[in-house]
């Protein structure tokens, strides 16, 4: 019989990034939002050489994705190269016994086989924003790459508001360069009269959100935070999470 005085095993969240682990820009914030939860990371580009990453650049017609590498740099890759490795990482984490998986990318990944809960920003963000943007006329969506500026029809279909897209990469190198890009995007949103901003990339941090709030003085929804806070609800076993 188990000793009732023994502390229970911590719940475990598997985090799948489309880049490389560890994600030093992401996991500290996740731990702050998920105290008491053990985090296990897998990266779609773990073990992949720089030469191979370069070969996985997007082909014409492929969805363009950007992500962070282990050394703090970034890469731009084609979706069709990454998707099978994301599926494999989810399967690997479930085999390892995690309680849930956080897919740390807001891109679309279609059918994804899994046994337990998988938190997928592609489904969560648009509906969450639609719920809080009721009555608004203009919503700003921030994306990392110019190639992603096209209207994100599928994800934001639930919105009644006009969607205005601006570009600022979270992977510009220095914090100053990132902040400059964010301020430029904020100027676009301000000119368009955006009443709510969605930072639609898991790479955007809390500090980046604060830059946008300071520039615009409107609510800013951080994709990584929305998913993490729902994960906290999902994984709460009565402990203080």
For the report, how would you describe the main beta sheet? 4 strands, parallel
Computed over alpha carbons, the radius of gyration is: 18 Å
3D shape: globular
Count of helical segments? 7
CATH architecture level-2 label of the largest domain: 3-Layer(aba) Sandwich
Class derived from helix and strand content: alpha/beta
Strand content: 15-25%
Can you give the helix content as a percent range? 25-40%
CATH top-level class of the largest domain: Alpha Beta
The CATH topology name of the largest domain reads Rossmann fold
The chain-level mean pLDDT equals 91
Strand order of the largest sheet: 2-1-5-6
Extract low-pLDDT stretches.
none
Give the beta-strand count.
10
End-to-end C-alpha gap: 27 Å
Keywords: Membrane, Transmembrane, Transmembrane helix
InterPro entries: Iso_Racemase_Enz_sf, Uncharacterised_AroM
Organism: Actinosynnema pretiosum
Transmembrane segments: 124-145
């Amino acid at each position: 019989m188990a000793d009732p005085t023994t502390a229970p095993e911590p719940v475990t969240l598997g985090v799948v990034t489309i880049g490389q682990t560890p994600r030093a820009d992401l996991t500290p914030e996740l731990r702050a939002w998920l105290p008491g939860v053990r985090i296990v990371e897998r990266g779609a580009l773990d073990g992949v050489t720089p030469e191979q990453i370069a070969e996985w650049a997007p082909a014409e017609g492929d969805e363009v994705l950007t992500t962070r590498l282990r050394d703090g740099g970034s890469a731009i890759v084609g979706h069709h190269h990454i998707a099978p490795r994301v599926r494999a990482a989810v399967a690997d984490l479930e085999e390892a016994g995690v309680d849930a998986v956080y897919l740390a990318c807001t891109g679309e990944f279609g059918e994804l086989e899994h046994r337990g809960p998988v938190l997928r920003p592609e489904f969560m963000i648009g509906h969450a924003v639609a719920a809080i943007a009721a009555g608004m006329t203009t919503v700003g969506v921030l994306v990392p790459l110019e190639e992603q500026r096209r209207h994100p029809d599928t994800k934001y279909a639930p919105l009644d508001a006009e969607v205005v897209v601006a570009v600022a990469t979270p992977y510009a190198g220095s914090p100053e360069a990132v902040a400059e890009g964010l301020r430029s995007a904020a100027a676009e949103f301000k000119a368009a009269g955006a009443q709510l901003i969605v930072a639609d990339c898991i790479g955007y941090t809390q500090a980046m959100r604060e830059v946008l709030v300071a520039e615009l003085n409107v609510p800013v929804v951080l994709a990584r935070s929305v998913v993490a806070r729902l994960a906290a609800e999902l994984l709460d076993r009565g402990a203080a999470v």
